[in-house]
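C-alpha cells please, single chain.
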Amino acid sequence: QAQLVESGGGLVQAGGSLRLSCTASGRTFGGYHCWFRQAPGKEREIVAAITWSGSNTYYTDSVKGRFTISRTNAKNTVYLQMNSLKPDDTAVYYCAAKLGGRSQTPNDWTYWGQGTRVTVSS
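Here you go.
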C-alpha cells in the first residue's frame, strides 16, 4: 500500500550538485531505504542505502565521498545529496524500500518509485 515518489533530477554540468528526494505515502515501516540507478543499456545498480534510524549507511565505491544519503522520518522522506557529479553518474535514479537487511538485488526491494532522471554534461 506504500508508494514512493522521487524528485530533484535534472540536467547539471560536470562538477555540479543535485539533491534528490524520495517521499513515501501510505503505510510507513522500518528496515532500509535506498537509491538505485540505471543508465541506458546497463543493469540497475544500488547507489546508497540507509536504515530507518539513519544510524547505518552504505555507498557503492564509485560515489563514496561525493554522495550522501539521509532521511527525515517525520516527513517520510529520504534524500540523496550528489556533489562533484560526473558524466558517468547520468542515469535514472530510483528510490526503493524494504524490510529486513540491505540487498544489492533489485527483486529483494518491495517498494519502488517511478524514477527521476539525472543527466550530467561534460
